[in-house]
Amino acid sequence: MLTDKFLRLQSFFFRLLGIQLLLDRGLGCRRYPRRAIFCILSVGSFMPLTIAFGLRNIQNVEGLTDSLCSGLVDLLALCKIVFFFWHYEDFRTLIQRFHNMLNMEIHWTPCELIVTRQNRRDQFISALYSHCFMMAGLSACLMSPLSMLSGYLRTGEVQPELPFPSLYPWDNSHLNNYLFSYLWNVSAALGVALPTVCVDTLFCSLTHNLCALFEIAQHKMMHFEGETEEETRENLVHIFQLYEECLDLGHSLNGYFRPLIFAQFVAASLHLCVLCYQLSAHLMEPAMLFYAAFTTAILSQVSIYCFCGMSVQEKSQGLGQAIYESNWLPLLKENLPLVKSLKIAMMRARRGCQINGYFFEANRQTLVMIVRSAISYVILLRSLA
Fold first, then answer.
1. Contact 41/34 with Cβ under 8 angstroms?
2. Which of 77, 127, 155, 297 could bond to 136 as cystine, CB 3.0-4.6 Å?
3. Which residue, 80, 92, 99, is CA-closest to 29?
4. Which of 354, 375, 371 is nearest to 363 (CA)?
């Protein structure tokens, strides 16, 4: 029986959207649930207000960067949830393939321990990331009421403030108008946070389980010797088939997430740029706490893709080292064709399984490049301010 931590947190978040991930739960499945449609509509309807605010402040660098920050978050969230719906059945089939393969491999105790360890690590990282992203959205929604309260205590007047930069065709100084606008902002924040956390943590979980399968192949490679020559050959055939299936899973996973990784990395460079600029502009103000939380959320978001992609590449390349460390010397005397097969497997393992976003590889070097690019953009903006 597969560990209960497999997609546990991810299933909870997707159920909040009305989506069922696993095929064997028997709870039914709706491809276009109402809660997910509400999230899409709330974000999609809010984006024109953000664009209008940016056009109105096009000569003001601070106002323009503020609207760009909000607009990038909204656009990226829409891309993720729409892309997920577009490939909904493909994602469910991929998840079921992972589920079936893991169920086949965990009957051996060492393999079960590998899968359990990777899923525990995934749930910890996913929970930490989701809390970080949700806290950023919550701080944005609470910042404006607290700022209004602080202004009222200082001046005795109430100045309407909203969580996100937006321009409205009505006067928000009236209470009813302000409450409607504020609820619209909150619904847009929820519509951004929930789909983003769903898709990002799904990627985190699938890559961790893919790493578990590669680890299982390595562990079996270290203990491939059988009591007879025929048993040894069957063990190696099983290991090579398992590795081939893992590579195929990795190729499918990369194919589905590649457009999202590309959009994530491009948006992250601009996002970190405007957030760092806002941090420098509000360094000694209460708003700094919000921008700091938002910067942390964006960094954690892009870090998930980079470090998970790097882990998949390293684990997939580890088969070559496992072959080298295994007891292959007796085969030199007993079965030379099997030795040649091991050589071919080592050559293939050098390439590994790559996770990329077309022009960007998901690894630590890409993360450093994104941060450096963001700092360069900040210096440019500071010179224009």
1. no
2. 297
3. 92
4. 354
Residue 27: predicted pLDDT? 44
Residue 371 forms part of a structural domain: yes
Tell me what pLDDT residue 3 has.
63
Q: Among candidates 346, 343, 322, 321, which has minimal Cα distance to 332? A: 343
Helices (H) then strands (E): counts for the chain: 11, 0
Q: For residue 88, give every residue at least 6 positions away whose Cβ sits within 8 Å of its Cβ, in sequence order, or none.
A: 19, 31
Q: How confident is the model at residue 385 (pLDDT cuts 50, 70, 90)?
A: low
Residue 235 resides in a domain: yes
Q: Are 53 and 69 in contact (CB under 8 A)?
A: no
Q: Which tens digit of pLDDT belongs to each residue from 254-311? A: 999 999 988 888 888 777 777 776 766 666 666 666 677 777 778 888 888 989 999 9
Phi and psi at 356, nearest 5°, equal -145, 170
- Please say whether the beta carbons of 247 and 217 come within 8 A: no
pLDDT of res. 110: 84
Residue 134 domain flag: yes
pLDDT tens-digit series, residues 14-30: 888 888 877 654 444 44
DSSP 60: -
* Centroid of chain to Cα 163: 25
Per residue in 202-240, is it b (16+ CB within 10 Å) or e — as a string? Answer: bbbbbbbbbbbbbbbbbbbbeebeeeeeeebbebbeebb
**In which residue are the tokens 């000569």 written?**
59
Residue 332 belongs to a domain: yes
Written as one string, the DSSP assignment of 329-376 is: TTHHHH-HHHHHHHHHHHHHHHH----B-SS-BSSHHHHHHHHHHHHH
Domain count, the chain: 1
* Closest to 313 measured CA to CA, from 250, 258, 366, 253: 250
Range of the domain at 235: 8-384
